[in-house]
Design a protein that fits this description.
With about 350 residues, this protein is mostly helical. It contains 16 helices and no strands. It folds into 2 domains: about 210 residues, no CATH class; about 60 residues, Alpha Horseshoe (Serine Threonine Protein Phosphatase 5, Tetratricopeptide repeat).
């Protein structure tokens, strides 16, 4: 992780294998001369389409990227993706070689500034194209500005990381002595890897802001999956404790709950989870015992507002709900200080 940008795609095995696949075949296409022009064209189309598939997959949070599909080789596939991808290299070529603002002085500086702007907005434009599949959104300055503002400083770090990736990919063929089939394949492989990584890094950053962009087809992240599996284990333990208590083995049931809580260092998360889920039981006394313990814990930690809210909630469920006298007295004083005289009286009575 660098400045909020997850660098995991740099070492993604699927992207590396795909890059080598494209690089080797592009080298073969170049070596074939005129006969390889059509193959090279099809491969570039496939790389472009696969890049957007990678962006969408990473934005959706897929843990395992898929290899390129045969559909990406279709020469008459989605032309909007192709047009979008071609537009940026074409703009850079025009600014670098045609130099529409002039070849010297201020005009040359304007060309460089425009080229920098093209590079700067490309990830935002690719993001909009990947999310919406609409060219007008991908080239709309308002949409691009929205993406850049939403991603904040992480967006500029993304651009910097992508620039570093492209620089590294460009230096590889420059360091090769001869340009044979093998060395050309290595150079193309690094270039394809840079393209795929750029889209993967963009998609990964979008994933962190998926709610802001309302990304469809959201997929569970690894963290979310582990949390879900953990709660399934909690549920099994809680059901075991419930079965013990239903069989009049109350002591064994509480021992099971204490072990579960101790395994998670008696955290507030596990205690509140137990409290909320035990409220679903027919007999709420067991949940309210945990509620009393939580109120006393909040009082001891100085979290009087949370303690009072939880006490009030438990008192509504059971008018006889009480906490330890010391905690009740401290909480009653706090309640009276903020004008909650009714709650203070209940605490005084319960205490």
């Amino acid at each position: 992780m660098v400045g909020g940008v997850n660098l995991r795609p740099l070492a993604d095995s699927t992207l590396i294998v795909a890059a080598v696949f494209y690089g080797v075949l592009l080298a073969v296409a170049v070596a074939a001369g005129l006969f390889g022009i059509w193959l090279g064209f099809i491969l570039l189309l496939s790389l472009w389409r696969y890049s957007y598939a990678v962006l969408r997959a990473t934005a959706q949070g897929r843990r395992k990227l898929l290899a390129p599909e045969l559909e990406t080789l279709n020469p008459i596939g989605d032309w909007r993706l192709v047009m979008h991808f071609i537009a940026f290299p074409a703009l850079l070529i025009v600014l670098a070689w045609v130099r529409p603002f002039g070849a010297q002085g201020f005009g040359l500086a304007l060309n460089f500034a425009a080229a920098f702007a093209v590079i700067l907005v490309f990830p935002a434009s690719a993001a909009m194209m990947g999310i919406t599949s609409r060219l007008e959104a991908a080239f709309n300055p308002a949409s691009l500005g929205h993406v850049m503002r939403t991603l904040g400083q992480n967006y500029y770090m993304l651009v910097a990381v992508c620039a570093g990736v492209w620089l590294a990919a460009a230096l590889v063929p420059a360091g090769l002595s001869a340009m044979g089939l093998v060395t050309r394949g290595i150079g193309f492989s690094f270039a394809a890897w840079a393209v795929l990584v750029t889209f993967a890094l963009t998609g990964t950053l979008l994933r962190e802001h998926r709610n802001d962009f309302d990304i469809a087809g959201e997929i569970e992240t690894e963290t979310e999956r582990l949390a879900r599996l953990e709660r399934l284990e909690w549920r099994k333990t809680l059901d075991l404790a419930y079965a013990s208590m239903r069989s009049n083995l109350v002591a064994e049931g509480y021992a099971t709950l204490r072990r579960l809580s101790a395994e998670h260092h008696d955290s507030l998360e596990i205690e509140y989870w137990l409290f909320d889920n035990m409220l679903e039981w027919e007999d709420r006394r067991h949940a309210l015992e945990i509620g009393a313990r939580l109120v006393e814990r909040h009082v001891a930690d100085g979290d009087m507002t949370l303690a009072l809210e939880l006490f009030t909630r438990c008192r509504r469920m059971s008018p006889s709900f009480t906490v330890q006298p010391a905690a009740a007295a401290a909480l009653a004083g706090f309640a009276r200080s903020i004008g909650r005289d009714g709650a203070a009286d209940e605490l005084a009575t319960g205490g």
